[in-house]
Amino acid sequence: MLQNLKAQPADKILTLMAAYREDPRDTKVDLGVGVYKDASGNTPVMRAVKEAEKRLQKEQTTKAYVGLAGDPAFSDAMIDLVLGDTLPRDRIAAIATPGGTGAIRQALELIKLAAPDATVWLSDPTWPNHPSIIKYLGMKSKTYRYFDKESRNVDYVGMLTDLGAVLPGDVVLLHGCCHNPTGANLTMPQLDGVIKLLQDKSAVPFVDIAYQGFGDGLDADAQATRKIAAAFDNVLIAASCSKNFGIYRERTGILMAVCKDAAQQPLAQQNLAFLNRQNYSFPPDHGARVVTTILNDPKLRADWEAELEETRNGMLGLRQQLADELRRLTNSDRFDFLADHRGMFSQLGTTPELVEKLRADHGIYMVSDSRMNIAGLNEKTVPILAKAIVAAGI
User: One of 30, 93, 127, 155 is an active-site residue; which one?
Assistant: First the structure.
């Protein structure tokens, strides 16, 4: 049997990580892997997470299964964090998942159950796991223009033009904030235009929000998702706790399904639980319980929000420093977009050949599509990157 297997494409980011580790240069800079790092290059455990884990260790009396959908308290806490009071709770079905990737996978599985002929529309570019999972599941997909490599901003006209071909019942995947891989977000007026188009097309929005709190703040980053959720009968929302709680390895995520009304919710909830049963039975609980403990305790939540704000402001500072340094070196404003983008990532909008030149000549490691992790920088490496970008002729 196993001799019939075919080699699968290597993961580009994992390959990049291996090459970085083997590079002997002291000045090398890792901007590839999408993990938050502090100024010393570490991914710290947040203070509130450590305190919540201490409490759990002391107070938890069992490791028995919780339920197919996970702990209801986790769902309630996360729905409040992402959606606030946008919708009545009885319109929302939800399941805990193994990370944001698990939430995306379950959302796509739900689409296959409910609308097997639907086409899933993805931004060009998007997170590579989106098309990869869709292809593996044998689902139909198309792309819409999103990023203009010349302006390094959203190609709004191209986006609306391409989405004009959406058919009733199609699913359109949108990034809730901090677009991955570009860092370029729709403005609220632009979002209004997209919502109006999708309403006219009778399409179903699917929001992937993995970086809430990394852009303009917890509530500000949720505004687009909340506006979308309020505008449609049905919306799917995949949320991750990996980044904003720093619990990457705990694999903590949630899938929410916004229903037309309270009468529709039980059927959606039953199907979500069914999908969890088929894929992994019961979702991981430790990270979810940590998150629930933090969000439901005022002191822990305040400390978590304060540390998250420090993280966000640190990335904004690095963005501004890099934009300023490139403006000084080039005597132009063509890199000012770096200060305007939000989240961990920005895309330089250059060629794979020049990205390879950055690696070979300067030890700068980023994904071949020129996505770079801003959180991989610090005050000392920003000038190194800026000089390399200019020297490479980007």
Answer: 127
